[in-house]
């Protein structure tokens, strides 16, 4: 069965965009065959509708090219496919792109001369970037650059509004170059970092070293160059670095929130940018938004209903970061309350985040949450009273158990019932890092599973707070 499915996939692959192919055909398999009927297993309920609408006919056609006695494709969701790789086909193995090598495990690759390749996020790849009309050109340009750094598209300038994937594309291109040339010195830097390095080099009189370092890189990726505005000295340094690299046919990739001619930068810099390839990213259309959601939901391993994803895609129209934000909240809801997000709970989340003004209208018809909503102060006071520790101690730095546990419980309650973000909770608890809060909340969650005493205390606190 595996062989048949692989043969069908081989025929399908050229017909489907690569990222879509990887998204929708991952963890699929043939589950059985009943005469002409081929039963295709899908790993998630949310894949079902998508396959029915988009892939059923082409899949059947491909299957018939191999075996013309196949007359029908039917789908069946089998969530265990996700965890049984031996039953499915590893798409990346069977459909490698440009015979790429694996990413080096380290994010920083030390170079002999003292330069390192620095790519911040190895998870940003060109393969997990979902392509649609809004970003097709930018993605294609990045692919071309990755295939031939320092070639035709130099410099590559990507521009567009916030949260539309510029940083993702830039780092993905760097990752892709590194994969092919593991020894390349690729430097990704934000404009802010670059500026700070210039300032530091001036201060410590190590300008020459700074220059040498940057001039030895194979590809320089600099994000958000609009922030070079009004920084003459940094612009000057960048200009020289740029020229040195350009002359050596080294790749430069730049991003900004607007096209070159609208940047408030020296003309000579703008004209350099205009020499190369310029591509924009704009707000993705509905279908692309939906595909991005599916991809991200998979990354977070959250099995959402297709209707819920469609609802999010319909109502989140500004940018991708916003889409991700809502999904993250849905993940939190699921993890904290073991509640599968529904359209209604997503609508509530969106209202809370106040992300979408037109949601107010669509909101009609969703009941408001039935529970009483206490404030964080009340939660703190209640926990303080219950465990006889002061609020100040809970907010403070002490790590003794008697204080630590009530603090974690207060954070947990704040997350679960007030739905405060981890960042906000961190702020409340004396500006702790959000990861500290995340850890605290998950610790309590874990303990609740196997500590009946804590569970009783929690129920009683929740009753006191009037949230259950
Ligand atoms: P920008 O730099 O343009 O402000 P980012 O690159 O930081 O935007 O993107 C914000 C988030 O959205 C990132 O997590 C990124 O992975 C995601 N994202 C944006 N566009 C896409 C896309 N087309 N496919 C997958 N993820 C995307
Ligand atoms: Mg960015």
Tell me about this structure.
- The protein is of the alpha/beta class.
- It is built from 21 helices and ten strands.
- The protein has helices at 2-12, 18-25, 45-66, 91-94, 136-147, 166-180, 191-203, 207-215, 232-247, 267-274, 286-299, 306-315, 320-337, 343-353, 359-363, 376-387, 391-395, 401-418, 422-428, 434-450, 452-465; strands at 29-34, 37-42, 72-77, 108-110, 116-118, 156-159, 186-190, 219-223, 251-256, 277-280.
- The strands form three sheets. Strands 7-8-9-6-10 form a five-stranded parallel β-sheet, sandwiched between helices.
- A hairpin with a 5-residue loop joins strand 4 (108-110) and strand 5 (116-118).
- Helix 7 (191-203) runs antiparallel to helix 8 (207-215).
- The protein is flat, with a radius of gyration of 26 Å.
- It starts with a helix and ends with a helix.
- Mean pLDDT is 86; it is low at 99-107 and 355-371.
Strand count, sense and barrel status of the largest sheet are: 5 strands, parallel
Q: What order do the strands of the largest sheet run in, or round the barrel if closed?
A: 7-8-9-6-10
Structure class: alpha/beta
Total of helices = 21
Task: Assign an overall shape.
Answer: flat
Hetero groups bound?
A: adenosine-5'-diphosphate, magnesium ion
* Quaternary form: single chain
From the N-terminal CA to the C-terminal CA, the straight-line distance is 51 Å
Percent helix: 40-55%
Number of strands: 10
Mean pLDDT, to the nearest integer, reads 86
Strand content: 5-15%
Report the uncertain regions: 99-107, 355-371
What Rg is obtained from the alpha carbons, in whole angstroms? 26 Å
